[in-house]
Design a protein that fits this description.
alpha/beta, seven-stranded mixed β-sheet, 5 helices, 7 strands
Length: 193
């Protein structure tokens, strides 16, 4: 089965391809000729995920899925949430986003946080949603070189390592995106036969 993952983030594509295995051929936006930035104007993860998927379907006629992910920090009333990717403003930068998060966490005793992913799938004219959550805490400094985004400052519950210290395989087993992708894969497998 060939399906487009509506993202320009190469690391996300690698993560999802690793989780999906050889059963599905994932094509990128670039491969379908989409080079523009996809719209993300909503104030919820669900709205943004479906907005991106609908844009690709409407403009390129391709079945696809899109995700939106947010880091929700308890001590910051759920921020940065839907604004995680642009938390520190433009131009977007993982480093600046982490700097702002760490700055906002100074002096905060409660460090609980969660990553939440929503995947919106458009397949054969119908829409479906898949969710994944990873609970954890915010570290007070960056640890690890792997992953992307806030991975160096997020330690998942039950682990002594940050997401940025885990291999892609380890991270996919417990991450928010991994959980949402597994739900998506299970659904696609059932539809295949």
């Amino acid at each position: 089965m060939k399906i487009c993952f509506a993202t320009n983030n190469r690391k996300k594509i690698e993560e999802v391809k690793a989780a999906l295995g050889d059963e599905f051929q994932i094509v990128s936006l670039e491969e379908i000729g989409c080079r523009e930035e996809l719209p993300e104007t909503g104030d919820t993860l669900e709205f943004n995920a479906f907005q991106k998927a609908r844009y690709v379907k409407d403009n390129y006629g391709v079945d696809c899925f899109a995700d939106d992910t947010g880091l929700e920090v308890e001590a910051l009333s759920g921020a940065p949430g839907v604004y995680s990717g642009r938390y520190a403003g433009e131009p977007r930068s993982d480093e600046r986003n982490i700097d702002k998060l760490l700055e906002n966490m100074v002096g905060k005793a409660k460090r609980q946080a969660r990553f939440r992913t929503v995947i919106a799938l458009i397949l054969n004219g119908k829409e479906y949603q898949f969710d994944g959550i990873a609970q954890g805490e915010i570290l007070d400094q960056r640890i690890g070189e792997k992953g992307f985004g806030y991975d160096p400052v997020f330690r998942p519950t039950g682990y002594q390592k940050s997401f940025a210290e885990l291999s892609m395989e380890e991270k996919n087993q417990i991450s928010h995106r991994g959980k949402a992708v597994r739900a998506l894969v299970e659904f696609l497998r059932q539809r295949k036969f």
